[in-house]
């Protein structure tokens, strides 16, 4: 594999006795769209600020395209940042905002204008150059901030929750536009969000952070379907977590005793080991069991919520365990119904973190 385009080597940042990020090792390839995902206080924004040069790390190094940029100011780095509040200049026109970074780089006026207009066209704002910022919608302001950032042709574009202030429909539209723009440019994007659905919609690779550390990283489908840790399983979408004890090894995995019975799991663990199992709500079948399914016993349906494409249900098993389930919206179900539960063994994920 080629040398990483961006490397964080043991990066840490503390504020007095408060640890923001600690011992972060992360490599990003040229042209990747990487999303830093985590709750408030997980360290994702601090890490983005370290990449942009706005925060100097307490320890470790940042290497960008073969250069050590750890101690370089933002102006001296081949990076650009789109902030959550966009940080646009209200006294300037849209064109002036987009051309601002080029002016700081001493680009001649005519070339500035040409490049700024080209960037506005690229983000779908042709003809908006003379407007003022207050005349724009939230989505248009976000596009202006993007155009300003990409106008300087950065090697690395950093995005700090740029879609957080948009309504749901516009946010989804802008997610698609971000992906399209990134693929067209071929620029490396690092995007911060706390929205799991957003991360899965846009990322080539998701980096799940918690308490200043990386919990898991990989393609969104792998992190969702095969999370590495208990935190990743519960933060990256909803999941049922079962406590269990490994009874014995099997030819292709282990048998784990749980409140739902003895469940075969494709994993390695020692007999007697205490583990947690993750089972996504949509992987529990209520009616027709999938091929090679294992029985999870009977359950009584409780609270049901219609969510458009599916029903979100809670169910109480005979052992007293409450499970979260999903069912197709058209299925005839009602609270109080007794239903058999099944799941495929391959859908059960073993986690060694305690539940």
Q: Can you walk me through this structure?
A:
By secondary structure, the protein is α+β, with helices and mostly antiparallel strands. It folds into two domains: 6-234, P-loop containing nucleotide triphosphate hydrolases (Rossmann fold, 3-Layer(aba) Sandwich), CATH 3.40.50.300; 238-351, OB fold (Dihydrolipoamide Acetyltransferase, E2P). Helices cover 24% and strands 36% of the residues. It has eight helices and 19 strands. It has helices at residues 44-52, 94-104, 109-122, 138-151, 168-185, 196-202, 220-225, 230-235, and strands spanning 6-15, 18-28, 33-37, 59-64, 67-68, 79-82, 156-160, 188-193, 205-210, 213-218, 240-250, 253-258, 261-265, 274-279, 293-306, 310-317, 322-328, 338-344, 349-351. It has a six-stranded mixed beta sheet with strand order 6-7-8-3-9-10, sandwiched between helices. Strands 13-12-11-14-19 form a five-stranded antiparallel beta sheet. Strands 2-1-4-5 form a four-stranded antiparallel beta sheet, with helices on one face. α2 (94-104) packs across α3 and α2 (94-104) runs parallel beside α4. It is globular. The relative contact order is 0.11. The model has no long low-confidence stretch (mean pLDDT 91).
């Amino acid at each position: 594999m080629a040398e990483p385009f961006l490397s964080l080597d043991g990066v840490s940042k503390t504020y007095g006795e408060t640890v923001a990020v600690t011992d972060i090792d992360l490599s990003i390839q040229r042209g990747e769209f990487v999303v830093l995902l985590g709750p408030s206080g997980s360290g994702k924004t601090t890490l983005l600020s370290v990449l942009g040069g706005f925060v100097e790390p307490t320890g470790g190094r940042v290497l960008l395209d073969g250069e050590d940029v750890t101690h370089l100011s933002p102006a001296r780095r081949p990076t650009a940042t789109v902030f959550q509040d966009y940080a646009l200049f209200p006294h300037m026109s849209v064109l002036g905002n987009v051309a601002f970074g080029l002016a700081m780089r001493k680009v001649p006026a005519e070339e500035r204008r040409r490049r700024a207009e080209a960037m506005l066209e690229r983000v779908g704002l042709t003809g908006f150059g003379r407007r003022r910022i207050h005349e724009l919608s939230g989505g248009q302001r976000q596009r202006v901030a993007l155009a300003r950032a990409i106008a300087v042709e950065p090697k690395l574009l950093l995005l700090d929750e740029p879609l957080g202030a948009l309504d749901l429909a516009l946010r989804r539209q802008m997610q698609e536009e971000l992906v399209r723009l990134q693929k067209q440019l071929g620029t490396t994007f690092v995007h911060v969000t706390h929205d799991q659905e957003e991360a899965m919609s846009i990322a080539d690779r998701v980096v799940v952070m918690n308490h200043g550390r990386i919990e898991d990283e990989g393609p969104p489908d792998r992190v969702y379907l095969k999370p590495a840790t208990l935190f990743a399983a519960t933060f990256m979408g909803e999941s049922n977590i079962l406590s269990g004890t490994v009874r014995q090894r099997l030819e292709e995995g282990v048998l784990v005793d749980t409140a739902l019975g003895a469940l075969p799991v494709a994993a390695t663990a020692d007999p007697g080991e205490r583990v947690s199992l993750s089972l996504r709500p949509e992987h529990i079948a209520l009616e027709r069991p999938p091929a090679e399914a294992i029985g999870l016993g009977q359950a009584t349906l409780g609270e049901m919520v219609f969510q458009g494409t599916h029903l979100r249900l809670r169910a109480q098993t005979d052992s007293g365990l409450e499970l979260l389930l999903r069912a197709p919206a058209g299925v005839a179900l009602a609270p109080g119904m007794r239903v058999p539960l099944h799941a495929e063994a391959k859908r059960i994920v073993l986690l060694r973190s305690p539940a």
